[in-house]
Amino acid sequence: MLSQVSLVRGASLRTPVALLIGLFFTLTASGDMGHMAGHMYLTSLRPLQPGDQQKANAVVAAARTAMAPYQDYRKALADGYEIFLPNVPQPIYHFTKYEYGREAHTHFDPLKPTSLLYKKTADGGYRLVGAMYTDRVLATEDELNERIPLSIARWHQHINFCEAPIGQKAAYFGPDPKFGLKGSITTREACEAAGGRFIPHLFGWMVHVYPYEKDPKKIWSIDDDNQGHDNMDNMSMPGMNMK
Fold first, then answer.
1. Can you give the pLDDT at residue 174?
2. pLDDT of residue 61
3. Ramachandran category for residue 180: left, alpha or beta (phi over 0 → left; psi -120 to 50 → alpha)
4. What pLDDT score does 62 carry?
5. What is the C-alpha separation between 77 and 81, in angstroms, rounded?
6. How many structural domains are present in the chain?
7. Does residue 238 form part of some domain?
8. Which portions of the chain are predicted below pLDDT 70?
9. CA distance 68 to 98
10. How many Å apart are CA 22 and CA 14, to the nearest integer?
């Protein structure tokens, strides 16, 4: 079990301590994923419009260019990317450049992904597999579509996070967790009634791209698979088709 201190150091003090603990328990807890649908929102898949594929392909090409200098993860660290929760076992590690994340709130530069996505290797290093672009929480789907066509890619937000009250951190665990991104609580009312702190949105809009994939469907993948993509265990959002 990680200590509170080591977890905070791993996140470079960018996130409130209690939230980090909640994220830690969420990431490491095993058990039923049935409640996860209430904690993730996906943009709607739009009909393909003329020029959409070309625009998306240009973003993929830019992502490859942006990623090229960082095959060695140590170069990313040297250039200011920081590992989010490095001591927590994860399928994908986000090396985040917070400066780029702030810039993404006002304009989109595909050569400046907010995060580089790495998979842990057996020798303790990291292998670069993708990139993540972000936008502010209040961005509209039309605005997201201007950045990357929603006929090709589906942005997501992590939502309805109920932070467990002090003394109830164990409720992040188990076959039917109450708190966190796997928890049964998905509303402010239920969270406050349970003594928790409700956070409607975590981080803002995100979209992952895997430009080294050969299968076009996997470049903007949102379905879990065996390739180490950072996705949500094959579940659907209410009213949203994941395929």
1. 77
2. 98
3. left
4. 98
5. 5
6. 1
7. no
8. 1-36, 223-243
9. 19
10. 14
**Distance between CA atoms of 22 and 159, rounded to whole angstroms?**
14
Residue 240 lies in a domain: no
Please list the residues that pair with 94 across neighbouring strands: 117
Q: How far apart are CA 94 and CA 24, in angstroms?
A: 14
pLDDT digits (tens, 9 = 90+) for 2-45: 333 333 333 333 455 455 555 655 555 444 445 567 888 899 99
The distance between the two most distant Cα atoms of the chain, rounded to a whole number of Å, is: 55
Element at 111 (helix H, strand E): none
Evaluate the CA torsion angle 63, 64, 69, 75 in order and state its sign: positive
C-alpha to C-alpha distance for 11 and 237, rounded to whole angstroms? 29
Task: Report whether 72 contacts 118 (CB < 8 A).
Answer: no
Q: Are 89 and 28 in contact (CB under 8 A)?
A: yes
Q: In this structure, is residue 166 part of a structural domain?
A: yes
For residue 39, being part of any structural domain is answered with: yes
Tokens of 194: 């349970």
CA 111 from centre of chain: 19
* Residue in 206, 191, 187 with CA at minimum distance from that of residue 137: 206
- Structural domain including 124 reads 4-219
What pLDDT score was predicted for residue 158? 85
